[in-house]
Known about the structure:
Chain A is built from six helices and six strands. Chain A has helices at 14-23, 30-41, 48-57, 64-76, 116-130, 146-156; strands at residues 5-8, 80-84, 90-94, 102-105, 111-113, 133-144.
Amino acid sequence: MLMRLCIIWLMTDLSLVVRALDEAGYRLTSPRRALASIVAGIDGPFTAARVVDEVRERGLHVGRATVFRTIDALERAGAIERIDLPSGDHAYVGCAPAHHHHVVCSACGRTAEVADGDLAALIGRIGRRTGYRIEDHRLEIFGLCPTCVATAMDEAR
Amino acid sequence: MLMRLCIIWLMTDLSLVVRALDEAGYRLTSPRRALASIVAGIDGPFTAARVVDEVRERGLHVGRATVFRTIDALERAGAIERIDLPSGDHAYVGCAPAHHHHVVCSACGRTAEVADGDLAALIGRIGRRTGYRIEDHRLEIFGLCPTCVATAMDEAR
DNA sequence: ATTTTTGCAAACCTTTTGCATGGAA
DNA sequence: TTCCATGCAAAAGGTTTGCAAAAAT
Lengths: 157, 157
């Protein structure tokens, strides 16, 4: 079992999510508030299916289409950002105004910071070398956090 | 002159794809050869749907399932690599044996390969700093290729 | 009052799977 | 001859859309 480690942005805060929707001109309806709350309460990357499940588990009256439409609205509003998991699934992460990169182990929840300066320099160098005017990039890292490495070693014995 | 150069290039690429399949222990069937030819002939990233279209346009007798199974085989054999476009579509690009990354032009789809040296150093540094045992990584870069930058400038007058 | 949003269901699109047949090694 | 691979069709997911009713502004 390979555990995943992804670079994500700062954890989501409910009020930030709602405000982003509001400021982007979206009406603040109760389904949207409910979904904002769900999204803000999920730690780490989440899929649309995960949100749909959460809706069902909480016994909320929110349709599947509304989940997708709201996720779309949240993305347009800049409250969440889509990432692509190695499995190919589309996932989303909350995103705060400041772009501080974190490393998070989705298994145990431990986080570590990644210095962004090096990556920015690397991207800049690549742009210069290839002649491309680079507008966006994604870096995904996969591996084992220290604790999980130890656990894996124990289990392998 | 230019045409001949093109043909030679395509054939070389095709043989690489077929050889990769062979060396990975896959049987060389005629559907696989046909699909290898299609994949080798596509310039830039391609989706499974694109391959299915190409099969239909050439009037080939190859089922949809075989397209997906062969793309999977090609990926396992290391002949192609999956990238995720900003649109969320799954696409594939042909790739040389060595580990590397691509820069994808968001306007025309041209790709350029990126030397991995610096990134490997960066990943190593992240691993050392965070204590994570990093097992894999993916870097995708999007921007405008030199040609499209020029075009954009022209259009902006 | 006007415009947006919602839930529902059905449509759509991509990808996978079961199975009998056909082909490669 | 022995598996592996194929085509077909059906299923399985994931996402979008049409529409009338409901809610926000």
